[in-house]
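Recap from last week: sequence in, structure out.
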Amino acid sequence: TRQSEGVSEGRFPDGAAVIVRFPGIATPGSTNRLDANLNGLPDDWEQTHGLGPDDAPLDPDGDGLTNLAEYFADTDPADAASHLALESITVTGDAVVVEFMARPGIAYRLQARDTLTNGKWRTVARLDPRPSAGLVSLPEFRPADGPQTSRYYRIEVREP
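Predicted structure tokens:
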């Protein structure tokens, strides 16, 4: 049969003869996971963290990240100290250097824009998945003689 656009398919469990559809969860290069309630959170992750089918948009630990964002960032939705956040921003000559704690196996992008109310976020740097966690620095190079304007940054988990 023809595969539906935007719906992953694969063997579940991995290596089994049966082909299963995985709507809402892309798993290229990793273990196939089920999301029976189609909320974006794999069923096994929900069970591990004691979450229900309507809990994806909630933020039980109050760290500013929804359970869905915690899943993609590979952080603990029950621990406010476990979250994706900028650690520091340093301006040096022609570069703005942003530091944050990267999780293993996660790809990130640094995005910037001049205002919070208008325009689109623009990707200014990327970080490929790393084998271990640690503090990383991503620079955005800007002309040293250019006008000094306000600049806003965010770190996003890249799609697989």
